[in-house]
């Protein structure tokens, strides 16, 4: 009898244990099912027609805003893009930008590109001028840096951290950029020609130039203190200010100048970095030698230009 009672108690204990475990498993399954049901229930709210319509409306608004900023040569700030979004879409800004990017590329021939953080670039340039480790930058390094803002990576954060500002960059093929297809005002052609020459001068001078040296080069190009023939531009100072305003040039005040007048140093601006690039300005220089150059000759010229700019060929 004692053995039977003990066996009965063991069986009862076993039943309670497994019964409790079964109940626990059932509860877990119910909770998982409820959670799954909840997720399934929430998903249609994102995919429903109202949400899709709202998303497309915001994408179009982002495209319109970006195009208007490009027309004015105004940088596009991330916080301004966020203001275009309704509250439910603010957390989906990256998705909205990706959709807007696709529309800008396939419809308008532009892409949204984040500008580099020029504070970081300025620190690197200063180190290079002082003979620091950055002076051993290679031609391959600068080309790889510019490839990071290529069309496949335009919305990714550029080297040096996020700047939170964007511009539109044309992705039209060269054969579609002729005056017969893309008509531009004569003023834009004039300013672009002058700008490219200034960018070349800065690049082959170690990527920076002080006021006196730049003015000397511009005097030889007949771009004197008084400018003639460019609509809305009367003086050289106005010309340089125009390029600074559009973020093609940066001007930094030099400490303790030897003259009474303040002195500045000029470098490339962030828009020049993403729109033109060092490889682009090198190709611009080589184009003056004609189209009949052999590829080896072009590469040799490119190496010499980069070397003049302060880069060394990687062994």
UniProtKB/TrEMBL annotation:
Residue limits of the MAGE domain?
A: 55-292
UniProt xrefs under Pfam families: MAGE (PF01454)
Gene3D superfamilies per UniProt: MAGE homology domain, winged helix WH1 motif, MAGE homology domain, winged helix WH2 motif
Q: Which GO cellular component term is one of those annotated?
A: nucleus
| Biased composition, class Low complexity, residue ranges | 24-37, 123-153
Location of region: Disordered: 1-41, 119-164
- Highest taxon above the source species: Eukaryota
Q: What is this protein called?
A: MAGE domain-containing protein
């Amino acid at each position: 009898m004692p053995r039977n009672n003990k066996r009965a108690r063991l069986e009862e204990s076993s039943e309670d244990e497994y019964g409790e475990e079964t109940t626990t498993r059932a509860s877990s399954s119910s909770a998982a099912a409820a959670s799954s049901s909840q997720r399934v229930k929430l998903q249609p709210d994102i995919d429903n027609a109202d949400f899709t319509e709202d998303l497309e409306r915001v994408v179009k608004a982002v495209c319109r805003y970006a195009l208007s900023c490009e027309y004015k040569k105004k940088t596009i700030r991330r916080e301004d893009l966020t203001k275009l979004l309704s509250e439910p879409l603010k957390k989906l800004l990256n998705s909205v930008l990706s959709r807007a990017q696709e529309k800008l590329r396939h419809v308008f021939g532009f892409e949204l590109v984040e500008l580099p953080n020029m504070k970081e670039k300025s620190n690197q340039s200063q180190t290079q001028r002082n003979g620091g480790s950055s002076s051993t930058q290679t031609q391959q390094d600068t080309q790889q840096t510019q490839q990071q803002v290529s069309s496949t990576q335009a919305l990714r954060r550029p080297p040096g951290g996020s700047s939170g500002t964007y511009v539109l960059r044309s992705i039209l093929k060269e054969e579609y950029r002729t005056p017969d297809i893309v008509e531009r005002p004569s003023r834009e052609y004039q300013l672009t020609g002058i700008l490219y020459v200034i960018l070349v001068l800065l690049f082959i001078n170690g990527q920076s130039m002080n006021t006196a040296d730049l003015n000397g080069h511009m005097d030889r190009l007949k771009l004197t203190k008084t400018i003639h023939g460019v609509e809305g531009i009367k003086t050289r100072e106005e010309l340089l200010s125009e390029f600074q305003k559009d973020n093609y040039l940066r001007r930094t005040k030099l400490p303790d100048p030897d003259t009474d007048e303040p002195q500045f140093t000029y470098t490339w601006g962030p828009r020049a970095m993403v729109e033109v690039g060092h490889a682009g300005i090198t190709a611009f220089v080589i184009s003056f030698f004609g189209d009949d150059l052999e590829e080896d000759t072009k590469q040799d010229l490119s190496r010499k230009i980069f070397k003049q700019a302060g880069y060394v060929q990687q062994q």
